[in-house]
Write a structure and sequence with these properties.
The chain is an alpha+beta fold. It is built from 5 helices and 11 strands; from the N terminus they run βααββββαβαββαβββ. The radius of gyration is 19 Å and the shape is globular.
């Protein structure tokens, strides 16, 4: 499952490339590889594909891929184990065996989650805006009021640097390295005024659940 934000281009890219990337890593394992080795292989596929996405941006004008990102959720069955890997806030619900209760197999990588906020604040000391809860400010211009109402539609929502709710994703390079590919070159991006020490969105962290 691939859930894009900021446009469909990164989600479409990852949907095409991730299954093959995972297969390539799994094919390097021995037939009797432990479950942990399988998960390490899947994680390497996630990380290497995100790096490849960054390189592929430089082969084009980068307009389509410069700002968008995508959450991803992938399930792999191997030797009786179901490995559920995800980055972002897509959710998987599984049942292990006939008649068993459904269970949530994923935890949201989202800035509204307390655990993700703690990680972000620990990684970015001195950046009070690393997690921002948008607040509505009235403005007499109608366009500003419309934007304000859209932001405040979910008052409990929190955003990384006021820009993005998922804390782990493919793409979103303006939040990972403080740059975006524009006009054939990397350009530094100011996400917000004040201190900014990327990465604020993690492309390396993949979470797993197992079902036997």
């Amino acid at each position: 499952m691939f859930d894009g934000h900021g446009g469909p281009s990164v989600a479409e890219y990852v949907a095409r490339a991730l299954p093959a990337a995972v297969d390539a890593e799994l094919n390097l394992l021995s037939p009797n590889a432990e479950a942990s080795a399988v998960e390490n292989a899947i994680s390497r596929a996630f990380v290497s594909l995100d790096a490849q996405l960054s390189r592929d941006m430089m082969k084009s004008d980068g307009v389509a891929l410069r700002r968008p990102g995508s959450c991803a959720l992938l399930a792999v069955e191997r030797h009786g184990w179901l490995h559920v890997a995800h980055a972002g806030d897509c959710r998987a619900v599984v049942t292990c065996g006939k008649g068993q209760q459904l269970m949530l197999a994923t935890l949201d990588h989202n800035a509204k989650e307390a655990a993700e906020q703690l990680q972000l604040r620990a990684a970015h000391p001195g950046e009070d805006d690393v997690v921002v809860r948008p607040r509505c400010m009235h403005h007499h211009f109608l366009s500003f009021l419309i934007i304000c109402l859209q932001i405040c539609k979910h008052p409990s929502a929190c955003y990384v640097k006021g820009r993005l709710q998922p804390t782990r994703a493919f793409g979103d390079f303006h939040l990972k390295n403080g740059r975006e590919w524009r006009g054939g070159e990397w350009v530094n991006t100011r996400v917000r005024p004040g201190p900014f020490t990327p990465p604020c969105v993690d492309g390396d962290a993949v979470s797993f659940a197992r079902c036997f």
